[in-house]
Design goal:
This protein is mainly alpha-helical and 70 residues long. Helices cover 57% and strands 0% of the residues. It has three helices and no strands. The chain has helices at 4-17, 29-39, 44-58.
Length: 70
């Protein structure tokens, strides 16, 4: 089990390194998305980030990756 100090440190890191975006999908699509990701060994978050990265870079935008974070 993680200690309270570890939980606080993780929360602090996530607040510094990540922005949160809430995503809404029509009823039924959440389960479809989760099933697709499970069938393909992906996380939902990772899958969505890959789609965003692919589209932005295809259209000439620079998408920040984990390796490029300050």
């Amino acid at each position: 089990p993680r200690s309270e100090a570890q939980k606080r440190a993780d929360k602090k890191y996530k607040a510094k390194a990540y922005d949160d975006i809430r995503l809404r999908v029509l009823k039924g699509n959440k389960e479809l998305l989760q099933a697709y990701c499970n069938d393909n060994g992906l996380s939902v978050n990772g899958f969505i980030n890959t789609l965003i990265y692919d589209k932005l870079t295809e259209d000439g935008y620079q998408f920040i990756t984990r390796d490029e974070q300050p």
